[in-house]
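REQUEST
  id: r-88c1
  op: predict_structure
  target: Ubiquitin-like domain-containing protein
  payload:
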Amino acid sequence: MPGTTSSSRRTTSRKRPAAVARNGPDAVPAGSPSIPAPRATPPAPPSQPCNGNAARPAPRLPPVDPATAQFLERDLDLSALASSLKHARHPSIPGVDLVLHEYRRFLLLKVAYKDEFATILAAPPPIALVWHLHILDTQAYAAMNARLPFFLHHKLSSTNDTAERARHLATSREYYRTRWGDPPKSVWDPPLLSPPTPRPPPATAAPQSQSQSKPAQDTTGKKLRFRVRFLQEDKDIEFIIGPNTTVGKVKAAIADRWPYDAASMQFTAPNGERLADNVKLMAIGLVDDDVLLAEATRRDGEDDGDDGQ
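RESPONSE
  id: r-88c1
  status: 200
  body:
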């Protein structure tokens, strides 16, 4: 076919100079169609950093059943807890209504992030104190948990848990901000309680009747007056102690005179922390007229040694 022969000659004559350039490693076999060079792909934009003001969408609170959210934020009856807090006038509580409001939000975070066994979040001291009081009202606490998707367990902290608790508390604050913005500092970042101010020893000894009602005392210089409150019985026991008095010594004095089992006794400090037996009470920042909240099992078949305080 003449047309085809003529076209072939033209193709050969035109491509002969280019054949020299194809003798290198990039040569294309004769008769193969030319392959267009690939277009340069623009580099991917660098990933945004995850700190500072990076354009990272804030995580949202995981979905919570609307009925559960309304129950925790509005319908949960905390009136008995409010009455107890107002009666105690605890120095670590900046305001009863505010702390209860923040306690409700803390409970909602626990449910949203499925913190059933207290392994993710931690409560700041004022909320921790409210939580402990709520747990002591066993019927009310159980009734609340019956309305939740799971039971909110609580575990005791110890001196070995300080770093872990700090991480969990930071997580709580971060999750709070994603939902409601910055938390109130008076609740979520409260100032430390002031340590007791050293005082000269009293000029005269306490009256005999007073010393009989306060069994745990030291005879060294500084003295501190405080109360142990058993909330389940609305009972206060007052003590005057010295700088070396430990939690264990006060527990032993209570168990010796009143029908409470020393092994089951737990003390909660004004900052919401549970106290170990070897802790010296003056070393934790107690001031006069502070209240330690206590819980304990009563010994069966025994009456109080006196009418209480």
